[in-house]
Amino acid sequence: MSRRIQRRRAYETICALHQEKGYEIASLCALAGIPRGSYYKWLNRETCASEKENTLLLEELIRLYSEVNGIYGYRRMTMNVNSRLKRNYNRKRIYRLMKSVHMQAVIRRKKKHYIMSEPRVTAENVLNREFTADRPNEKWLTDVTEFKLQNGKKAYLSAILDLHDKSIVAYALGHSNNNQLVFDTFDAAVNANPDAHPLFHSDRGYQYTSRQFKAKLDGIHATQSMSRPGRCIDNGPMEGFWGILKSEMYYLQLFHTFEELEKAIHEYIVFYNTRRLQAKLKGLAPLAFRNQTLVA
Question: Are residues 249 and 288 both part of a single domain?
Fold first, then answer.
C-alpha cells in the first residue's frame, strides 16, 4: 500500500471516529502521528464519506420519524433504521443526528408533555467554508465545547473567533450549556467591538436558533449563518481552535475544580491571543496582527 493511500485512510478514520464517537481531533491526530494542519487541509479539500452518509441517514431518519408520527426516540429509531437499511449504526450517532435537527419523541417519560418542534430560527450556510476575511469583525465563528473535571462535574466553554486574525474576541465558561452562556459571550464580544456588524456563523444548537439570539444579531445588524446538519467542517476553524486549546492546555494537566479550569483557560486564551505566533499571520500573534490591520 502506498504512503499516499495510507495517509488518506488515516484521515478518513480520524474523520469517522470524530463524527461517530465524538473523539477529539487533536487526540486522534496525535495517535496517528499526523499534524493537525495536514488533517484540516485534507478536510477542507475532501468531504468525508461519513458526512455524505450522515446526510443520507438523516433523510431516512426524518422519513421514518414522519411515518410513525414522532413516537420513536433515538433507541427505537436506531433499531428500526438498522433493520430497514441492513446496517449497524450505533445509538450515539443516531442520537447526534436527531439532535442536530431537534428531533425527539413526542412520548416522554417525564410528566410534562413535549412535542417535536423545528428550530425556531434557522439560517443558510452563508459562510460556505470561506474561512478568510479582509478585515477585523467581518466574520465571526462561535461554538461551545465541553470539559470534564476530576470531581465528576462538567464545564462548558463558549467562544467567538474572528476569522480575520483568528483571535478569540470573547469567551465565557459556565456550569451549564445553556442560552445564558451563549448570550454572555455574544454580549462581551459586542461590548468589546461596538461597531461590529459581522457575518455570524454557528451550528444549529438550540441557543443559536432561539428568537432571543436572533434579536441580538438583528440588534447589531449581523448576518446569521449556520452549518448544515452533521457537517462539523462548516465551522472548521472554530473546531480547530478547540483542538489547539485542548492539546496545548487541557490534556496536559488534571483539573479538579471549576475554578482551576477557569484560571487555566483564561491564561491560555491570553497567551493564544497575545503571544502564540502564527505563520499565516505574518509571524505575529492574533492581537498584534489585528492591531496592525486596524492601524493601517
Answer: yes
What is the model's pTM? Answer: 0.63
Which set of grid coordinates corresponds to residue 62?
Answer: 426524518
Q: Is 113 within the bounds of a domain?
A: no
Residues 6+ apart with CB under 8 A from 247: 24, 26, 27, 30, 36
In whole angstroms, what separates CA 85 from the centre of its chain? Answer: 29
Instruction: Output the DSSP codes for 220-242.
Output: TTPEEEEPPTT-GGGGHHHHHHH
DSSP secondary structure string, 99-146? HHTT---S--SSSS-------SS-----STT----SSTTSEEEEEEEE
Same domain as 288, residue 150: yes
How distant is the alpha carbon of residue 11 from its chain centre? 19
SS3 state at 47: coil
Residue 156 in domain = yes
Please give the chain's pLDDT, 296 residues, in tens: 577 777 878 887 887 787 767 778 888 888 888 888 888 887 776 555 667 788 888 888 888 888 887 888 888 889 898 988 898 999 998 998 888 878 887 765 554 444 444 557 889 999 999 999 999 999 999 999 999 999 999 999 999 999 999 999 999 999 999 999 999 999 999 999 999 999 999 998 889 999 999 999 999 999 999 998 878 888 999 999 999 999 889 998 899 999 999 999 999 999 999 999 988 898 999 999 999 887 76
The pairing of beta strand 199-202 with beta strand 168-174 = unpaired
User: Is residue 53 situated within a structural domain?
Assistant: yes
The C-alpha atoms of residue 65 and residue 73 are separated, in whole angstroms, by 9
Domain that residue 30 falls in: 3-45
Q: Count of domains in the chain?
A: 3
Q: Please, are residues 149 and 261 in contact by the beta-carbon 8 Å criterion? A: yes
Asked whether the beta carbons of 117 and 102 are under 8 A apart, the reply is yes
Same domain (yes/no): 231, 196: yes
